[in-house]
Inverse folding.
């Protein structure tokens, strides 16, 4: 019977650890989401690791594979409670994988807004107005289109000031 365990990886080496574990025949899972980042003044959409520095690996609890995983390039060690590595419920892994597939299919960004979606502004001079989500404008700001005086205007607002309508 095999169980899922949480592995702590070296900084920014989750992909390397996953590839090395798969080369050794271990099943591993590295959840990712589609996100946007500002790079050289341009907004780029790319896959991002959902849990930086962590990945899940499936092992036979009775085997001696813990040592092999721990000594894999990119892996720092297991997440532990006391002396025992933490077991992760298989249901959680299935749920993460299912949600990852749904987000990818829908083209949803990691904040949960899609271009063209109606949102409400919660703070600032446009508080209470309805707007249409356009795109991310950096890591903490977004562009929305609002109607003011019968004209549509693009405005940049803080992401935390939006809610779904």
């Amino acid at each position: 019977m095999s169980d899922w365990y949480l592995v702590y990886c070296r900084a920014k080496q989750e992909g390397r650890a996953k590839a090395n574990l798969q080369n050794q025949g271990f099943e591993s899972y590295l959840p990712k989401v589609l996100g946007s980042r500002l790079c050289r003044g341009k907004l780029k959409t790319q896959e991002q690791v959902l849990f930086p520095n962590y990945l899940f690996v499936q092992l036979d609890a009775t085997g001696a594979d813990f040592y092999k995983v721990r000594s894999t390039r990119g892996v720092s060690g297991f997440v532990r409670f006391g002396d025992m590595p933490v077991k992760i419920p298989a249901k959680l892994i299935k749920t993460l994988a299912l949600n990852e597939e749904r987000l990818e299919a829908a083209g949803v960004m990691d904040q949960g807004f899609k271009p063209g979606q109606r949102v409400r502004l919660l703070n600032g001079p446009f508080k209470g107005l309805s707007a249409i989500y356009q795109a991310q404008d950096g890591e903490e700001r977004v562009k929305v289109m609002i109607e003011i005086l019968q004209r549509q205007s693009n405005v940049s607002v803080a992401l935390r000031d939006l809610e779904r309508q």
About this structure: The radius of gyration is 21 Å.
